[in-house]
Design a protein that fits this description.
single chain
Length: 158
């Protein structure tokens, strides 16, 4: 037990509680991780079963890396909104694309124009639609058509 010099036993000085200094960050991180776990459970209720291990390997395990916690949570929130995909497919796909770009570009080095030209990122979006929604009908042409409004939008709307 730590005792400050000049204090007698019973003066109300006990062991130093380091959580007083570091607890807030830990609590915030724990809260974010719990939100991610809730989203994962919600997604897993409706996502195609055969792709479960692939979802875990490609996305869910990133909750362990601090830099990916926020982008992962935002991506999973967009994925969990299945209603948006059925109501307005174009807007939902654009949102998923932007969240996927933020997830894979944590340091924010990729501009929107570069992301739209990035074939690997578009492939990842098609794969995301497959493993989370079971959508096998998305091809390059259709994806290009759905993402076109992002290219035409003014910079402040993106």
């Amino acid at each position: 037990m730590f005792k400050a010099p000049g204090l007698r036993s019973g003066d109300g000085v006990g062991p130093v509680k380091w959580d007083a200094f570091f607890g807030r960050k830990k609590e915030a991180r724990d809260r974010e991780l719990e939100e991610i776990r809730v989203l994962i459970r919600r997604i897993e209720k409706t996502a195609p079963r055969p792709y479960g291990p692939e979802r875990a390997a490609r996305y869910y395990h990133y909750e362990q890396v601090r830099a990916y916690v926020r982008p992962l949570r935002l991506l999973l929130e967009a994925v969990a909104d299945r209603k948006a995909l059925s109501e307005d497919e174009g807007a939902a796909v654009r949102t998923l694309f932007l969240r996927l770009r933020d997830f894979y570009d944590v340091r924010d080095r990729l501009s929107l124009e570069e992301a739209l030209r990035d074939v690997r990122l578009r492939r990842k979006l098609v794969h995301l639609l497959l493993i989370f929604y079971g959508r096998k009908d998305m091809d390059a042409g259709r994806l290009q058509t759905l993402l076109e409004p992002l290219r035409e939008a003014p910079e402040e709307e993106r």
